[in-house]
Specification:
about 40% helix; 7-stranded mixed β-sheet; single chain; about 20% strand
Length: about 260
């Protein structure tokens, strides 16, 4: 594995040690966003899927439970995440988990795929988004679908809140060329992307759909702000649904795109 991905892998190896799975299981905002990501996957027609950045296998396990008659190859750069995902999905006969990067996609045993998905921004840590887009393209069958999520560069709500708190350095962190990731104590070289940058990188594809997340609904790492406030959470989620019909869809914490590889 290349040096860059060795560093990324070791970062997420540490996340396993720090209790990544437990934090994810108890974060209700994270679960709500994740379930919405999954609805986009469930809408697609496919038989042979690829998950990039599978983490500890939460979505791979969901895949096995909901699509027992379909194949999935789940990959991650972290050896410890792959180990956790392998244990979580061992009960499913049609799921394979392996340590790999986007450089390995076309050589995976099940390639080409008719569906690829990325949840929670694994593509924000690739060396080059245009190169990753090309490698995903080459690993897809003609007509294949890519359901992809990205950490957004212009998260307007958080930017304004942090500016009001005079936290200027943190406010503009994700706007810089290289972002240090979510952790305040550990650095992970990442890049946040605007919708226009994503579209440019995936210009060889046909865009089928898009959605913004956490425009007003708090980001998953601020889930404590909605603890015990179910009515408020629902109102903010419904507000986001309305804002997704406006240009403000592109100013949330995450963006989701559904792309299709042209048939001809």
């Amino acid at each position: 594995m290349k040096g860059y991905y060795k560093t990324v892998g070791e970062y997420y190896d540490k996340d396993v040690e720090l209790g990544f799975e437990k934090r994810a299981d108890t974060n209700t905002s994270l679960q709500r966003i994740r379930n919405q990501f999954r609805t986009y996957l469930a809408k697609q027609k496919f038989t042979n899927a690829l998950e990039i950045g599978c983490g500890p296998g939460l979505d791979a396990e969901w895949f096995g439970e909901n699509f027992p008659d379909r194949d999935l190859h789940a990959i991650d750069v972290s050896a410890e995440m792959v180990k956790s995902a392998g244990l979580r999905t061992a009960k499913f006969g049609r799921i394979k988990v392996s340590q790999a990067t986007e450089y390995d996609l076309s050589s995976l045993p099940n390639a080409p795929f008719d569906l690829t998905y990325v949840f929670f921004g694994a593509l924000n840590t690739v060396e080059s988004l245009p190169d990753a887009a090309d490698r995903i393209y080459n690993a897809l069958e003609p007509g294949g679908i890519a359901v992809l999520t990205f950490v957004n560069k212009w998260y307007l709500r958080e930017l304004l809140v942090l500016l009001l708190k005079l936290r200027f350095k943190v406010a503009f962190a994700r706007i810089r060329k290289v972002w240090g990731g979510y952790s305040t104590s550990r650095y992970l070289a990442s890049r946040c992307y605007t919708p226009s940058a994503i579209r440019k990188s995936f210009r060889a594809y046909k865009e089928l759909d898009h959605q913004g997340f956490s425009i007003m609904f708090p980001a998953w790492y601020n889930h404590h702000k909605l603890r015990g406030k179910g009515d408020k959470a629902n109102r903010l989620w419904e507000l986001d649904e309305k804002l997704n019909k406006t240009l403000l869809w592109q100013f949330g914490e995450y963006t989701l795109f559904v792309f299709q590889k042209p048939i001809n």
